[in-house]
Specification:
The chain is of the alpha+beta class and 277 residues long. Helices cover 65% and strands 12% of the residues. The protein has a five-stranded mixed sheet with strand order 1-2-5-3-4. It starts with a helix and ends with a helix.
Length: 277
């Protein structure tokens, strides 16, 4: 019996020693598993966070892509409009250049035609006479005749020599029956010292104008309705009245031919046709 008790005691002791060792192994294994679980949990959480970040980035990139698509569409529209605007601007520049070119051509042609008109009138009135000046300005023809061809000093009686010049002027006026002509008398600044009905240079300039009008209408067949008599005294000089020569230039009678603008251009067109022939 004693032997049985000892055997059981030894067996129990051996059994107790084996359980503790196994427990230690199991406990170590459990700790290892727990550490592995903790590591996996950390990695899982990290992956989840990274996934969330990537998802947010994907959403942002998607929005950015949509914005880029919209921007691209807008840029395409703007580019089209920009191209259209540039094209319109270029067309406008071309049109302006063309207008400028046409205006330059017109001015060149106008200058040549104006010269032709002046030359034609000078031929009719007396091209070679330096005391007769003819100019065309803004559709108005000016025929200026020095007083020494028309009057004696201080007089308003038209000389016989003047009637030959006025006959040529009358021909120009009669060739343009729809035109009006203003006859302007101009004096120098030397005060009038004569006697009779004249008081000053105003009177003298007007009286000389009316004397020429009477010759044109009474002797040379110009219609009175075409003529206007005017006196300018000494207040519209060509040059300063500081010498005898300059005062002689300022003493003049000016025939101002006043056509309507369409009539002037008709005259211009006739001259152009003559040039083309």
């Amino acid at each position: 019996m004693k032997k049985v008790v000892i055997a059981l005691s030894v067996l129990a002791l051996l059994s107790s020693c084996v359980s503790k060792k196994k427990y230690a192994e199991l406990e170590a294994k459990n700790k290892e598993t727990q550490d592995l679980l903790n590591t996996c949990t950390v990695k899982l959480n990290s992956c989840l966070e990274e996934k969330a970040a990537l998802s947010a980035t994907a959403v942002a990139l998607k929005d950015q892509n949509l914005n880029l698509i919209e921007t691209s569409k807008e840029m395409a529209v703007l580019s089209t409009k920009g191209a259209q605007n540039i094209e319109k601007a270029l067309e406008s520049i071309k049109e302006k250049d063309l207008k400028i070119s046409r205006m330059q051509d017109a001015l060149t042609k106008k200058d040549s035609v104006t010269l032709a008109v002046v030359t034609s009138l000078k031929s009719a009135v007396g091209l070679s006479d330096p005391d007769i000046e003819i100019n065309v300005e803004k559709g108005v023809v000016f025929i200026s005749i020095a007083d020494k061809l028309l009057f004696k000093s201080g007089s308003y009686d038209v000389t016989d020599k003047a009637k030959g010049v006025l006959a040529k002027v009358a021909k120009v006026i009669n060739d343009k029956p729809d035109f009006e002509c203003m006859v302007e008398g101009h004096t120098d600044n030397v005060p009038f010292t004569g006697s009779g009905v004249l008081i000053d240079n105003w009177d003298l300039s007007v009286k000389r104008s009316t004397s020429i009008v009477r010759v044109l209408t009474g002797q040379l067949g110009v219609k009175p309705s075409q003529l206007i008599a005017a006196g300018r005294s000494s207040f519209v000089p060509l040059v300063d009245n500081n010498s005898a020569e300059n005062r002689a230039r300022n003493r003049r009678t000016r025939i101002v031919v006043l056509p309507k603008i369409d009539q002037f251009y008709e005259m211009v067109e006739k001259e152009m046709k003559k040039q083309q022939k």
